[in-house]
Write a structure and sequence with these properties.
Shape: globular
Structural class: alpha+beta
Distance between the termini: 17 Å
Largest sheet: 4 strands, antiparallel
Strand content: 35-45%
Length: 128
């Protein structure tokens, strides 16, 4: 899932990622990784929840879940007023986005899993 949260408060991004992860785990899904991409300008301004946004904080949540659970996660976080946009993207072979053929700048996740900041090896510790 690629999610875009309104920028400015990292605690909001953490809260939304935690909410999505909780819904996934409670419904039998498996979280593979969480990658913080940080704030970026949007390709075009987006009007959401009566506000116009030109930038957003992006994060990637890789998971395995049934289509019903995917829809539940998407609906749960989409109604949050802090969210700008989110979408679930199918992965090919579990490691590449569909249509990703040598595109530079994509977040690569090796066989050893994601690299966590601050020298930790625990998921959730020091991601943001």
């Amino acid at each position: 899932m690629i999610a875009v949260v309104r920028p400015g408060n990292i605690a909001e991004v953490k809260d939304i990622a935690l909410k999505a992860g909780t819904v996934l785990l409670q419904n039998g899904g498996v979280i593979r990784s969480l990658t913080n991409w940080g704030p970026f300008l949007l390709t075009k301004p987006i009007k959401k929840h009566q506000r116009k946004h030109d930038s957003g904080h992006h994060f990637i949540l890789r998971f395995d879940a049934s289509p019903q659970v995917q829809e539940k996660v998407r609906k749960t976080i989409a109604i949050d007023p802090r969210m700008i946009r989110c979408g679930v993207v199918r992965m090919v072979g579990g490691d590449k986005l569909v249509g990703e053929h040598g595109i530079k700048g994509m977040s690569e996740i090796g066989a050893g899993g994601p690299v966590w900041r601050k020298g930790t090896s625990t998921p959730g510790a020091g991601i943001f």
